[in-house]
Design brief:
The complex is a heterodimer of chains A (about 150) and B (about 375). Chain A is α+β, with helices and mostly antiparallel strands and about 150 residues long. Helices cover about 25% and strands about 35% of the residues of chain A. Chain A has two domains: about 45 residues; about 100 residues, Rieske [2Fe-2S] iron-sulphur domain (Rieske Iron-sulfur Protein, 3-layer Sandwich), CATH 2.102.10.10. Chain A has a six-stranded antiparallel β-sheet, with no helix packed on it. In chain A, strand 7 and strand 8 form a beta hairpin. The longest helix of chain A is centred in the first third of the chain and has 39 residues. Chain B has two domains: about 240 residues, Cytochrome Bc1 Complex, Chain C, CATH 1.20.810.10; about 80 residues, no CATH class. Chain B is globular and about 75 Å long. Chain B starts with a helix and ends with a helix. Classes of the chains: A alpha+beta (about 150), B mainly alpha (about 375).
Chain lengths: ~150, ~375
């Protein structure tokens, strides 16, 4: 036992520990209650694959935004009928990007970020990183999008 | 230089810093004058001191209601989605059942605590001069607590809440002349619907808390001003025989222990008897057998039921409402009738009135449950 441990210190320490335990016992359910939607989204984020039937594909020279698990993805169908899919969330500050076929670019309207519509590479403006790319596989009557 | 002294004696340095922070705040917020007032406050000590805790217990339960209420607001959706959102809170959201149970149990315990507080004030005659406004603001708060209970009961929009509200709103409806108009405005149409849920929601989460906190502020300020009243049995003693303890820290510590006990009881209740959710409200379904209001409206329910059997029709209902209104008015006027500190005839009458009110409420409630 430490020499300077007085009864007063022991009692205060015990009370402090009891109060901390009590606060924890109350805080934990409240935290889990508030975190529930975030936990659900984390569960959704584990989705690594989605299917899209042929008839829901965008027309050639256009794009569509998809809910891919907990995040958004942009599926672009170029004029030559090749298809690419990227995360639709701008790497700058999280706005949802748009495909502009006439200017052959992916554009973020919030702060003017521009990405290459074939590679997702950040070309100009504030975005620090390229858009994450997903694999697109064409099968009979549908398209399968996979996270690498 | 300052760093050097910190290194030599960090605790002395810290307390010097603490003193500077305190002085800085004190100069601007007048903290020490508040402290001086708090230090001088005392609470009378006698064999009825236990009853002084019930106001504080009611306050604790109000705080619990405010916090759990905000938590429920995060997921609750009023209107047509009300039932689904409460179902999701109860069965899907982590610990949602616990938050909802705490809110429902604390509501019931709060009504109970407020009743105990009111009757202890009545029997200790704490309403006498100069505490009349304490009594009146207290009665207003109790009325608001009952409206809180009534409006909150509808929000889950299940079968029981639907009929409880429909029956409850028949009471203003039976008032001659303006009754139907009032009932229709309150429920937003000729019958209870999800429009009513939306209105009760606005009332329950905004209007009532706002009014309640305003009156509560006055109620608490009056207690600060006048202190705890001593019952007549203590007043009869000579001054030097009366005892008291400092409010801070002695009584405040006891208050805190009482809060802890009550909060633990509340948590155990919520945990062991989680609040259930009935079937969704269906305006086309018949009322289920044995439907009855919450226990705190049982006495009024029983009076209306019995009077309805003796004097069928409107007359019985109006007589019942009249009786309760008259009782309430007499109850409110108590401090004007029994206003002296002497234990005279009026004081004895007031004690009898309180006793009759208490026994009457209890008997009607038990009778009501026995008749289900």
């Amino acid at each position: 036992m430490p020499a300077d441990l007085t009864r007063r210190k022991l009692i205060w320490g015990g009370l402090g520990a009891a109060a901390a335990a009590y606060a924890g016992a109350l805080g934990y359910p409240v935290y889990r209650y508030l975190a529930d939607p975030a936990e659900e989204a984390a569960e959704l984020a584990k989705v690594t694959e989605m299917e899209l039937p042929e008839e829901e594909l965008p027309a050639a020279g256009s794009a569509t935004i998809l809910q891919f698990g907990a995040r958004k993805a942009i599926l672009i169908r170029h004029d030559d009928d090749t298809m690419v899919c990227f995360s639709a969330v701008c790497t700058h500050l999280g706005c949802t990007v748009a495909y502009q076929a006439d200017q052959d670019r992916i554009y973020c309207a919030c702060h003017g970020g521009v990405y290459d519509p074939r590679t997702g590479q950040n070309v100009s403006g504030p975005p620090p990183r390229p858009l994450e790319e997903f694999n697109v596989e064409r099968l009979d009557g549908k398209v399968v999008i996979r996270r690498a | 230089m300052w760093r050097g002294s910190m290194a030599k004696s960090s605790s002395a340095g810290l307390s010097a810093l603490g003193a500077r922070v305190w002085n800085w705040c004190d100069e601007r917020l007048a903290l020490s004058s508040i402290w001086a007032i708090a230090e001088k406050k005392t609470v009378p000590l006698h064999r009825h001191t236990f009853w002084y805790f019930w106001g504080g217990i009611s306050l604790l339960l109000f705080i619990v209601q405010a916090i759990t209420g905000v938590l429920l607001l995060i997921y609750y959706r009023p209107g047509p989605e009300a039932y689904d959102s409460v179902r999701s809170i109860t069965y899907d959201i982590q610990f949602g059942w616990f938050v909802r149970s705490l809110h429902s149990w604390a509501a019931n315990l709060m009504v109970f605590a407020v009743f105990v507080h009111m009757f202890s004030v009545a029997f200790m005659k704490a309403y006498r001069r100069p505490r009349e406004f304490g009594w009146w603001t207290g009665l207003a708060l109790m009325g608001l607590v009952l409206v809180f209970g009534f409006s909150g009961y509808l929000l889950p929009w299940d079968e029981l809440s639907y009929f409880a509200t429909a029956v409850g709103l028949e009471i203003p409806r039976s008032l001659p002349g303006v009754g139907a108009l009032i009932a229709n405005i309150v429920q937003g149409g000729p019958e209870v619907s999800t429009v009513t849920v939306q209105r009760f929601f606005a009332l329950h989460v905004f209007v009532l808390p706002l009014v309640f906190m305003g009156i509560l502020g006055v109620h608490l300020a009056l207690i600060m001003k006048h202190g705890s009243a001593v019952p007549p049995s203590e007043e009869a003693r000579p001054e030097r025989e009366r005892r008291s303890i400092p409010f801070f820290p002695n009584f405040a510590t006891q208050d805190l222990v009482m809060w802890l006990i009550c909060f633990n009881v509340l948590c155990v209740m919520a945990f062991v008897f989680p609040w259930q959710l009935g079937k969704p409200a269906d305006p086309l379904a018949s009322a289920p057998e044995g439907i009855h209001p919450e226990w705190y409206f049982m006495s009024q329910f029983q009076v209306l039921k019995v009077l309805g059997e003796w004097i069928p029709g409107y007359l019985g209902e109006i007589l019942g409402i009249g009786l309760f209104t008259l009782g309430g008015v007499l109850w409110g006027l108590l401090p004007l009738y029994d206003n002296t500190s002497q234990s005279g005839v009026r004081a004895r009458h007031a004690t009898w009135l309180a006793l009759i009110a208490l026994i009457g409420l209890l008997a009607l409630t038990i009778w009501g449950y026995a008749g289900l």
